[in-house]
Structures are given as structure tokens and as C-alpha cells.
């Protein structure tokens, strides 16, 4: 019975290898952004390394989709594969946008809330990267996903605080617009880690 179940589940495990790589990639991108904001503008050059992560993420997503189109029986639901690939790609895309906007908007110094959000994003991507290998054996990942949800709630509080601070008397409206854009993308990146956590939870539950 076990061999039949394994056959029906699919024998192509390369999807898990690709997701492991994607998990490491989002963690690298978030780490670089955290380091960039921590010592900005001295380390603004890290934006180039983050762009490389974004390009690597695109390649991994394309490879996952290519393999999906060539595989008849997959180890997990095809829809879950697509959704997880999309969520992981979104994380690194938004992370790269933050780094890019810092340069485009000629930000001279980071707001402390942006630095805190980058730290939250780094922690959340670490949890996702640690959870992904466990999904290969459909093991319990609740320790990691619960922490991602907690971090997302923390990020919501920081974003609200940041937006409120932007509307203090005397702040240049152009500064408000620029930082609002940056905060939205930081929030989107962190929201995408939570979406990835929900997808991973669903995969484990379906295949337990």
C-alpha cells in the first residue's frame, strides 16, 4: 500500500530541491536588505547583490513551471506547486523593489521603522527557509509557521507606526510619498512570507 501511495503522490522529488534553493534565495535577499538598511547609505551597493537574488528567483520559478509542464504525476498538488513558487518569487521581487526604490528615490538615511521591518522580513524568510525542507517528508512545520504569523502581526504594527510618523507636521509631502511606497513594499514582502507559510501548512495537511 505504501508503494502505491508513493506512486500516486509522484516520484519526481526535484520540485523539493528547487523549493529548497528558492527558500535559501529568499533568505539571502532578505539578509542583504537587512544589512543594506542597517548601514545605509554606506552599503547601498548591496542593491546589486539583491538584484542577482531576484534574477535567480525568476530562474527558479521558470524552472519549476517548466518541470511542472513536463511532469505527469507530481509529488504534491500542481496548484500548490504553482502557488508556492509564486509566493516565494513575490518575496524576493518585493525585497528587490525596496532596495531599488532606496536608490531611485535618493534616500539619504533610512527610517528606523524600515530597519525594523527589514529585520522582521529577515526573520520571516529564515523561518520559511527552515520549513521548506521539512515539507519534503510532510513533517510538522507549525513551529515555523506560527512564528511567521507572529512576525507578520509585528510588521503590521510597525507599518502603522511608520505611516503615522510620516504625517507629522512639517514633513515634505514628497518624502511622505517616497517612504510610503517603500513601506508598502516591505509590508508586501512580509505578507508574502505569510502566504507562503499558509501554502506550506496546506501541503503538509493534505499529505500527512
Largest sheet: none
Any low-confidence stretches, pLDDT <50, length ≥5? 1-10
Q: What is the residue-averaged pLDDT?
A: 93
Taken as a percent bin, the fraction of beta residues is under 5%
**Percentage of residues assigned to helices:** over 70%
Q: What is the H/E order?
A: HHHHHHH
Q: Return Rg in Å.
A: 19 Å
The number of strands is 0
Distance between the termini: 15 Å
Q: What structural category do the secondary elements indicate?
A: mainly alpha
Shape: elongated
Count every helix, treating DSSP H or I runs of 4 or more residues as helices: 7
Could you please describe the fold and organization of this structure?
The chain is mostly helical and 208 residues long. 81% of the residues lie in helices and 0% in strands. Residues 1-10 have low confidence and may be disordered.
A few lines on this structure:
The chain is an all-alpha fold and 208 residues long.
Sum up the structure in keywords.
single chain; 208 residues; mainly alpha; 81% helix
Record the SSE blueprint:
Elements: H1 2-9, H2 14-38, H3 46-70, H4 78-104, H5 112-135, H6 142-166, H7 173-207
Amino acid at each position: 500500500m505504501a508503494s502505491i501511495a508513493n506512486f500516486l503522490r509522484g516520484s519526481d522529488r526535484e520540485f523539493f530541491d528547487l523549493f529548497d534553493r528558492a527558500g535559501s534565495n529568499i533568505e539571502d535577499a532578505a539578509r542583504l536588505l537587512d544589512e543594506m538598511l542597517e548601514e545605509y547609505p554606506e552599503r547601498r551597493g548591496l542593491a546589486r547583490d539583491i538584484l542577482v537574488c531576484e534574477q535567480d528567483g525568476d530562474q527558479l520559478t521558470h524552472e519549476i513551471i517548466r518541470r511542472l509542464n513536463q511532469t505527469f504525476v507530481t509529488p504534491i498538488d500542481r496548484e500548490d506547486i504553482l502557488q508556492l513558487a509564486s509566493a516565494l518569487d513575490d518575496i524576493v521581487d518585493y525585497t528587490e523593489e525596496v532596495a531599488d526604490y532606496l536608490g531611485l528615490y535618493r534616500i539619504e538615511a533610512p527610517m528606523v521603522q524600515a530597519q525594523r521591518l527589514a529585520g522582521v522580513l529577515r526573520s520571516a524568510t529564515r523561518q520559511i527557509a527552515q520549513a521548506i525542507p521539512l515539507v519534503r517528508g510532510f513533517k510538522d512545520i507549525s513551529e515555523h509557521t506560527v512564528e511567521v504569523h507572529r512576525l507578520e502581526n509585528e510588521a503590521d504594527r510597525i507599518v502603522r507606526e511608520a505611516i503615522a510618523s510620516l504625517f507629522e507636521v512639517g514633513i515634505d509631502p514628497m518624502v511622505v510619498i517616497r517612504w510610503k511606497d517603500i513601506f508598502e513594499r516591505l509590508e508586501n514582502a512580509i505578507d508574502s512570507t505569510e502566504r507562503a507559510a499558509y501554502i506550506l501548512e496546506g501541503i503538509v495537511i493534505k499529505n500527512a
